[in-house]
Design a protein that fits this description.
Radius of gyration: 21 Å
Number of helices: 12
Shape: globular
Helix content: 25-40%
Order of helices and strands: EEEHEHHEHEHEHEHHHEEEEEEEHHHE
Number of strands: 16
Oligomer: single chain
Strand content: 15-25%
Strand order of the largest sheet: 15-14-13-12-8-11-10-9-16
Amino acid sequence: MVIESRHIGGQSRLTYGQIGGGPGSFIGPVHRAAIAMNNQARIVSGCFSQNLEKSKETARELDIDLNRVYSSYEEMAQKEALRKDRMDFVVVSGPNHMHYETAKSFLEKDFHVVCEKPLSLDLTQAKTLLKLSKERKRLFMVTYTYTGYPMVREARHLVRSGKLGEIRLVVAEYAQDWLAEKAEESGNRQAQWRTDPRYAGISCCVGDIGTHIENMVHYITGLEIKRLSARLDTFVKGRSLDDNAFILLTYENGASGSYWASQVAVGKENGLVVRIYGTKGAIEWEQENPNELRLSLLGAPQAILRRGNGYLSAPAKSLTRLPSGHPEGYFEAFSNLYRNFCVALTRFEETGTLQPRGEAEDFTDVLDGARGIGFVEDCVKSSRLEGAWVDATKISEG
């Protein structure tokens, strides 16, 4: 499927700036590549590093006017807001502990925001951003990347259309092994800040990857957590935060769930797997094999649905970029989120109002981000109470 580009006079219509993503960054360049795939927006400004010279180094590589390279996010928000050609949105891709203050600064200057997860380090901050984005009428995307896969959209369609009947059970896991040893002492920058409470907050494993499970299950099923019981472990000696978690859940509709998140599971690379069981059928999807979705219906043989085929739903087809048999992956999923965000932002610029978003404008937003922070706090609370069942924090747009 060809993605429609939106241009004015041969130039990309939307413009954006970025916080973070300088030399040595992993996720920052991923954001830029994902945006570039759609050709809907171009980067025009940034504060890519806390070191101005390193920021300028990145700017030169991206052919950005050095007058629009800033020494801090505060300076960038203030000066970009005064420009006649001010950017349309900002991408917040710096370390976790900077997300809240950075996003807040740009919202207060009436910029639309895209933010890496986690949205913030605590629920009070998350609720502030939720309220501020609503008051300022700004679009706010939180990049839960895996929701951008076509077969995740197919899974959502199957559940929401009633194909599986009433949902009874959810079993999901996200297993990695990259923190099985004390990588934070070997010069691994990603490990250093993810395991440090000053930068990661109250949780490492649940905050980093457990939130992807919570978001994925909610995105596909719409199920609301009623209560949960969590055990968070820290297996590597000397580490301050959790590196493994087991979580039992009950949902508002009476269904039961089990989540496992681990960063010490030797042999696992990026094993996000979601299994959903209903009264009429079941589905299974795994991130390391994202182009397939297993569908089992009562009384019928198991079917393997594959991306790019005509039998899929319209939501899945709309995110497909290549013909069947040509694998699509992480970058395409990330880019799909940006495509929908830019479509929604373009419509906002044309109408001046925030309207309900349809399939073509569907992306995980600030409400999803706040829900994730509430989930982390609930898990930590339960674990500190030796696995006691706790009522789930309820987050609403109001």
